[in-house]
Amino acid sequence: MNKKVVLAYSGGLDTSVILKYLKEEYRYDVIAVCVDVGQKDNFEEVEKKAYATGASKVYIEDVKKEFVTEYLYKAIKSGAIYEDDYLLGTSFARPLITERLVAIAQKEGAAAIAHGATGKGNDQVRFESSIKALDPTLKIIAPWREWQLNSREVLVDYAKKHGIPIPVTKKDIYSRDENLWHISHEGGDLEDPWNVYPEEVLRWSVTPQKAPQKPEELTIEFEEGIPTAINGKTYEPVEMVRLLNELGGKHGVGIIDIVENRLVGMKSRGVYETPAGTILYEAHRALEKLTLDRSTLAFKKQVALKYADLVYDGLWHTPLREALDAFIDSTQTTVTGKVKVQLYKGKCYTIASASDYSLYSEEFVTFGADEVYNQKDAEGFINIFTLPLKIRAIMKSKKKIENDGVKAI
Fold it and tell me: Which of 61, 105, 126, 178 could form a disulfide with 314 if both were Cys (CB 3.0 to 4.6 A apart)?
């Protein structure tokens, strides 16, 4: 029997315990795979810890650049936001992580992939839908759905019993997910939505109240919907996101405290920090308003809602997502230009925009004298545009007269 299993490993509480559990309880040959999507970890220490906990082999996969260019650029261009707030930081990372897990499982001849997602969350769906799309022959092991270790407090005890060093305590019990795009905080006292989140929960940002008193202005340049430069300087993809995370975090930009609807049917509460994403979404949206026509912009907003649902629900590897990307890319051919934003006290404001593809014409919209627009033409347009309203009013007037006549008899 093939007892090789590839484990999605982070070195955190859950996956550290799972590694030991798979080794001790099921006698699996565990191949630990840590996919670097930008989390601020010491990967040498992560590798050492995995071996010390019982892994037979460890892979550290650096996919940061791919994460930005193949996933986050799509996020920016789509404008996808889940339930008006969430910029899908965890959701966009999961299909990429799963692609690496599957590739390594195939390379190593493993029979299964294990993950640390709970039976209550969205990640189990995201991991498993991608595994089934990429290689349905692989078995899936989800310990949280099988074992009796039914709380993070119990996991802490298990880790201590087996001598596994862990980054959390029963006091700091938050479940966190970090990558280049965001860091999320859930669990602990955050599970009660009436509890105001403590300031010390934050890892990347200051609170808006502690942000600088002076606003900071940035000019962000785009080429076909993709950010390329800040304040006239061109940056590599990963470098740009990191810089904007630093600048946004300094001003408290991108902190959200939300209750969201999970795919599995329950609501959850989390505090998320997404500084760079918040800035880039705002700048990109402003440039689209300048360069896209009314109908395209309106329809693209509908597409963004569907795109967000697909990504959130783990349906990345689907024909519909690919088809929506084709539409979105076609809208971005003119989304080239620059946007000036202002960061101040937790907010990112657009204050100026410019593009060679701008559909804004000062010549047409001016309140001063012009030679391109005959204002008398508006009268005929309004007459035609409002004709259905006029016909309906006439009909209602006739019916009223008829009804009044019947009543008089």
Answer: 126
Residue 142 CA neighbour count, 13 Å, CB half: 16
Q: Are residue 44 and residue 110 in the same domain, yes or no?
A: yes
Q: Do 252 and 130 reside in the same domain of the chain?
A: no
> Does residue 177 carry a catalytic annotation?
no
- Same domain? 210 vs 166: no
Q: Compute the CA torsion angle 252, 258, 126, 228 (nearest 10 deg).
A: -30
β 337-344/233-234 pair status: unpaired
Q: Which residue among the candidates 10, 14, 205, 269 is catalytic per the annotation?
A: 14
Task: Give residue 156's domain range.
Answer: 4-63+90-171
- Per residue in 134-168, pLDDT (tens digit) is 999 999 999 889 887 777 788 888 888 888 877 66
Query: Which CATH number characterizes residue 274's domain?
Result: 3.90.1260.10
249 contacts: CB under 8 Å, gap ≥ 6: 204, 205, 206, 273, 275
Sign of CA dihedral 139, 142, 143, 147: negative
Q: Which residues pair with 230 in a beta bridge?
A: 220, 233
Catalytic residue among 78, 91, 123, 176: 123
For residue 161, report the phi and psi dihedrals to the nearest 5 degrees.
-65, -35
pTM listed for this prediction: 0.91
Instruction: Please say if 175 is a catalytic residue.
Output: yes
CA-based nearest residue to 282, from 81, 119, 110: 81
- Give pLDDT tens digits for 284-330: 999 999 999 999 999 999 999 999 999 999 999 999 999 999 999 99
